[in-house]
UniProtKB/TrEMBL annotation:
Taxonomic source organism: Govanella unica
Protein name from the UniProt record: RT0821/Lpp0805 family surface protein
Glycine zipper domain location: 34-76
Signal in keyword set: yes
InterPro entries assigned to the protein according to its UniProt record, in alphabetical order: Anti_2 (IPR032635), Gly-zipper (IPR039567), Surface_antigen_Rickettsia (IPR016364)
Length: 159
């Protein structure tokens, strides 16, 4: 992906986020995080599947929209439940075994299904995983990659 495309995707993502307002307050960081992460995943997917700058931009815009919707619908407890379930699944679940989380207060649920571990080019232990979130009547599914940090925690590196 070219540097121009990356800059354009970033600018578009931030513009979409900045334009979304809730009364007089900007949308909370959940939306911002979702938009930016979704744009990145969409850009990579567009480039990988179709190729070219147009596909990258279209993928980024679609990803930004989907990511923003997920971000808007999750509260702090949902995110904490999702993060804990993801860390546990990546640390100890075999490939293909789905771990689930639930927030009984919000009604949100989700699942994490890790794939086999591998070493990346930097020698880090990494895992791809599928993540599904059900919140406020909407279901979103995404694919991410996380690599293990020196402290044992997993950090998302793609998605």
């Amino acid at each position: 992906m070219s540097n121009k495309a990356v800059l354009l995707i970033t600018a578009l993502s931030l513009t979409v986020t900045a334009c979304a307002e809730n009364g007089s307050k900007p949308m909370i960081s959940n939306t911002t995080t979702g938009v930016v992460a979704g744009a990145a995943v969409g850009a990579v997917a567009g480039t990988a599947i179709v190729g070219g700058t147009v596909a990258t931009i279209v993928g980024a815009l679609a990803g930004a929209y989907i990511g923003g919707e997920i971000g808007k619908s999750l509260d702090d407890r949902d995110r904490k439940s999702m993060e804990q379930s993801t860390q546990t699944a990546l640390n100890s679940s075999p490939a293909g075994k789905t771990s689930r989380w639930t927030n009984s207060e919000s009604g949100s649920t989700g699942s994490v299904t890790p794939q086999p571990s591998y070493r990346d080019s930097k020698g880090r232990l990494c895992r791809e995983y599928q993540e599904t979130v059900n919140s406020k009547g909407q279901t979103q599914t995404g694919y991410r990659t996380a690599c293990q940090e020196s402290d044992g925690s997993w950090r998302i590196v793609n998605g």
